[in-house]
Predict the structure.
Amino acid sequence: MHLSQGDSGDIINDGDGFSFGRGEVLEVEEDELFEARKALSEARAKQEAIEKERDQLLEELARSEAKLKEYASAIAHDKELAVSELEAAKSLFNQKLQESIEGKFKLETKLVLAKQDAVDLAVQVEKLAEIAFQNATSHILEDAQLRVSAAETSAAEAAYQIEEQIRNATEGTIFSIVEQSKNAIEKALAVAERAGDHAEKAMASITDGASTVDEIASIQSQNIYLQNSVNELESQLLLTRNEVDRLKLELKQARDQANAAEIRAGNAEKALLELQESSRKLALEQKEEIKSLLEKMKKDATERRKAASKAFKAELEAIKSAIEAAKETARSKEEAYGRRCEALQRSLRASETASKMWKQRAEVAESFLSKEIPLSGEDVDAIYVVNGGRIDVLTDDDSQRWKLLSDGPRRETPEWMKRRIRTICPKFPPRKLDVYEALKTESRTLDLPKPDEVWSIAEEKLIKGGDSLVEHVIEKEMIEKKRKALERALQRKTIQWQRTPEQTKLEPGTGTGREIVFQGFNWESCRRRWYLELAPKAADLSKCGITAVWFPPPTQSVAPQGYMPTDLYNLNSAYGTEEELKHCVEEMHTQDLLALGDVVLNHRCAQKQSPNGIWNIFGGKLAWGPEAIVCDDPNFQGRGNPSSGDIFHAAPNIDHSQSFVRKDIKEWLNWLRNDIGYDGWRLDFVRGFSGGYVKEYIEASNPAFAIGEYWDSLAYEGGNLCYNQDAHRQRIVNWINATGGTSSAFDVTTKGILHYALHNQYWRLIDPLGKPTGVMGWWPSRAVTFLENHDTGSTQGHWPFPREKLTQGYAYILTHPGTPVIFYDHFYDFGLRDIIMELIEARRRAGIHCRSAVKIHHANNEGYVAQVGDTLVLKLGHFDWNPSKENHLEGSWQKFLDKGSEYQIWLRQ
């Protein structure tokens, strides 16, 4: 249909071309509306009828389900023991399997990381070798080329100069020789011509017959002159030859120098080639070494993987064998249970037969007494009397003995229960041993079994249900045991207060003032039954001078270490069961040790999801909802008030401003104090909520000692620790002040300063006012000093203390005020037990407590010297010092401990 407007009014056209007016349309719509309303009312009536039927069916279904549940519970009751044992075996197998898988995953992760590190190391070594080779060869090559070029240039220049000199000298000499020779020859020719002329004249004169003595003399003189000229020419020629020989020698020397330069250049080139070859060989050797190292690492990794796989398989086989043993044990228990049931049925049938026999005898006795049956001689020995209800005691349905016989099975009755049962057994009249005497008496005894004989049947059975009497006695014994333990603790504290006047006032922030705390676990303790391992160490810890033991978190947790709690009242954790925890706490109390519980109050892991899929609904006894979570927690959509501290993003942060939350936490803490036996608290992540709430919780639970973990970052500048850490320790002091001094806090400031100070920076241990630089210097009675814990050390290693400085660190905290804490790993795993015992003994002899005064005499790069209290002096470092060199130390001092340059301790005599 579609609408078309025209001058005549609104007309409705349908797709087929038919049209009708608006009035007709309204009538049709009203009819349809009436029919629709009528249909709707009918549908509603049908719906109501259907809902009634559905409600009836639901009620019938609920009743049937209730009956079905009753039947199911009745059927499941007989199978609970076997199922529980099977589930325990399955859970043990799953736990072992999970641990094995986790171990395998960790090993594989470590292997992958090791491979990656090895590859990165090889690449870096290869790059460094290549760069070094290039740098070395380039420098050497350039230097050699420069030297060769310089040698060639100098040789060429020298050869050119020598050739020029030779050429010039030779040309000049030869020219002069030639000229002289020409002159001499010309003179000789002239002389010869003159001599010839004279000879001709002489011949002519001779021939003419005319010769004179003068002409002969002149000729002789001329001959002598000519001979002298010839000698001069020969000497000049000889000198010229000598000069030529000298020039030839110089030319030869120049050529030799050029040859030597060429030889040196060749040697340089050869050395360069040898260097290149050696560098290449070295690079190849390094590559081979890296390859061999990688191969070795791969081989080791493969062997470790094989060993881990073998260990995993062996553990898996052990688990399988354990499961088979558990199954066999369950099967044997089922068979034994079946045999016990059959024996019980036989005993019940025998007891029913005996009961029938006793009833028949009772009827005979009653009929005899009522004279319904005449007495014959044969029946004289069979006279029985219902004596004071003895038959009723055995056959009455309300009798405890009859219940034991009929209900069974029953465990062996303990001696204390036998003694109590004997006290409530009915008193029987004396038995008549003679028939004549029995006939004389008004009543005749019935030959019944003795009470011990009746109870011997029950002693061989097991109790099927609980015995209220047994539970009452056990509860009474537990109350008596706790009362005696409290009396011993009160007596111990009374004796200590009488011995030391400083301990007369017990405060939760300081304890007795002389506490030495031992952290009784590390990050890996959850992997073993830790309570069972820690309990036997109580005697040793007490002997060493420890006064308090810090326990791991006791509650059920998402993380096995216990710091992600779920159900606060469930104390079956990875460290052990609730019963094992109680046993461990009792062992501590028997050795006069305080038990400090690690409680997580800032956050709690939810156990259910809200409709929008957020984990913010808690389970267990404290079933809180989103209203118990702070509203500014970005991950869990809390509906409470804003947080009063920092947000812990891994779990929902609890809103302590809610009154019901504080009420539940106070009840839980009192339950831990009264039922479990904890004496004090270690409070986790107290930065997450206000110290005012901590004060309320401490005042409600009244612990003997309380420690808060306020872990904040120190001040650094350029990667180095700043000297002034006043802002850091001020934040910790502010939190302690917010608790009203009811709690102490870990002195994180002192730990961070000791990391640097013990590396010849002892000047960090004194502030501008001459006091210690940590919380110890401002509020020593509330400072709990430590070196490491499960977070900073152990396998986590977030902030490990320098291992080579541990003895110096313990010498510092165990001789200074505050409450020192000793870490489990250092005491039992690092071999420091004897050293720590000596330091504790020094603290005890000097009477050091949490409020002892400190006077620092020296603090520089060489060492640290301080007097603590009136009777102890400590020296750290290689500083050359002893009490005799100090003018301000009075009295006689004796060296108690001497560890050389690490530390020395003197005690006043």
